[in-house]
Amino acid sequence: MRPGTLLRWYALQYILKDEIKDDGIILDIGSYDGEISYRLKKISPNLNITVLDVDQSGLEIANKKGLNTLCCSALKIPIENEQVDIIICLDVIEHIVEDHILVKEISRVLKTNGKVILTTPMKNGVNLPFVNKQKVLNINKKWGHVRLGYSIEDLENLFQKNNLSIVKKTKYFNFFSRFFYYLSFCSNIPLKGKKFLYEIVIKLEPFLKLKSQEHIIIAQKMKS
């Protein structure tokens, strides 16, 4: 599993299990190979999950995992209004120039009282410990971010304009996870077992929030 996906799984697994009912209709936006949805479906086999992405190669992997797939832009989702119980949108919105259209589409396809579970960096983006600002900016660019991140106020404004209300918020990607992410995958420092250490540290994500720099947002679609 890709290191960022593994991090998100450990940070979100309890939230996802709590929010998603076993017979729910789930749309997983921009998750490439659908690994997190695949893990959810192993826990709750009756979930109806569709992975949406523009990358056909990732969707082929998701399809082999038994997931439904949809190759299209999240800015124009070919699903009728109010069909989806839960939308998962993890570290996607900061990659989208027209973020307001993404949120509008999320709201459109959600059922009334349906929820979106969204993650994204905080306002100033993700900083890696002991790494200078320019290098961090270069890493963010390499990740394909069109903006560094969002404040809670930014997200509230985006959601409120589209009949969505934030009902829960927390955070992830704490100081230690960021340090070992950099050590393991972005640096040339020779250290045996770097990946193993990273995997141990990120298991603490649900419990340790020290200097976390990513939002976890749950927003609900309100009655019109």
CATH architecture: 3-Layer(aba) Sandwich
Q: How is the main sheet built?
A: 7 strands, mixed
Number of strands: 7
Order of helices and strands: HEHEHEEHEHHEHHE
Determine Rg (CA atoms, Å). Answer: 17 Å
User: In which range does the helix fraction lie?
Assistant: 25-40%
Give the CA-CA distance, first to last residue: 40 Å
The number of helical runs is 8
Query: For the residues shown, what is the average pLDDT?
Result: 94
Number of domains: 1
CATH fold-level topology: Rossmann fold
* Class by alpha and beta content: alpha/beta
Q: DSSP strand (E) fraction?
A: 15-25%
Strand order of the largest sheet: 3-2-1-4-5-7-6
Basic shape: globular
CATH homologous superfamily, by name?
Answer: Vaccinia Virus protein VP39
